[in-house]
Design brief:
The structure holds two protein chains of two kinds.
Chain A lengths: L1 H21 L3 H21 L3 H25 L9 H20 L14 H8 L1 H30 L1
Helix pairs in contact in A: 1-2, 1-4, 2-3
Chain B lengths: L2 H18 L3 H21 L5 H32 L4 H19 L1
Helix pairs in contact in B: 1-2, 2-3
The chains are: A mainly alpha, B mainly alpha.
Chain lengths: ~160, ~100
């Protein structure tokens, strides 16, 4: 049951990815990207990686909120709406692209066979990485804030 | 179901979008697809194990930082040039440089 559901979700993942890239209207593209994130989170959850599913869901909600707002405010409006034929063609392309993943196989034995639980993997094995990543994110956030502030100040002058 | 092939196909779609789309928002969506393809490998090659999920969170941190930089660029460029089309932005930048050169001469 679950492998069959995961295959359907994988097809949906690729279809929504194709739609996200090739639809002309930005809002529809972002909606398709939301589908991509949702399918990814469902695949993680059904594969037994519950923490990954929750994080994927949480991060994607933040990204999508920002993207919907900026897409509506800053995106260029297309001259004409996408025709049903084009949408059907994109659906077909997504389904065709997902066929190799269903019928072919290149994976060997996974090298990650350690039975480390999530908490100890994050804090014992990758603790320093987590700390450095937090510093990198804070630095980038500060840099973006400074750049935007400079632009605002120059605009005011 | 082979998730390595699935993530390779997603990576190919993302790179194709990155190379062919001219709107900055679509470029951002392409980057998100590439990041999703990478994180899919992390999780599915270590299904149910802690290490894969820990690496996914680290990948998310990088992805979020990249998203922040791209969105800041998008806001600055859209406010300055009034468009998010890369081709138009390059044309506007060149014409502005020419105007500056004429003014300085």
């Amino acid at each position: 049951m679950v492998p069959f559901v995961i295959e359907i979700l994988s097809v949906g993942l690729l279809v929504s990815a194709v739609l996200a890239l090739f639809l002309d209207e930005v809002v529809y593209s972002v909606a398709a990207l939301a589908g991509t994130f949702l399918f990814t989170a469902l695949i993680y959850g059904l594969s037994g990686s519950l923490f990954a599913a929750i994080f994927q869901f949480a991060v994607s909600i933040g990204t999508l909120a920002v993207l919907f707002l900026s897409g509506e405010m800053l995106g260029d409006k297309p001259l004409k709406k996408a025709s049903p034929t084009k949408i059907a063609a994109l659906f077909g392309a997504g389904i065709v692209l997902s066929l190799p993943a269903i019928f072919l196989s290149v994976s060997g034995e996974s090298g990650a066979n350690s039975n480390v639980d999530f908490g100890s993997a994050l804090w014992d094995l990758r603790g320093l990485d987590v700390l450095f990543q937090a510093i990198v994110i804070l630095t980038i956030a500060l840099g973006i804030a400074i750049v935007l502030f400079e632009k605002k100040r120059k605009g005011a002058q | 179901m082979d998730f390595v092939i699935l993530s390779l196909v997603m990576l190919a779609i993302g790179i194709y979008g990155l190379l062919t789309n001219r709107q900055l928002l679509k470029v951002f969506i392409s980057v998100e697809l590439i990041a999703t393809a990478a994180t899919l490998n992390f999780v599915m090659l270590a299904t149910g194990q802690g290490l894969g999920q820990a690496m996914l969170i680290l990948a998310f941190a990088t992805d979020t930082a990249v998203s922040g930089v791209i969105l800041a660029l998008l806001v600055i460029v859209s406010k300055r040039y009034g468009t998010s089309d890369i081709g138009n932005i390059v044309t506007l930048m060149q014409s502005k440089e020419e105007d500056d050169e004429v003014e300085s001469a």
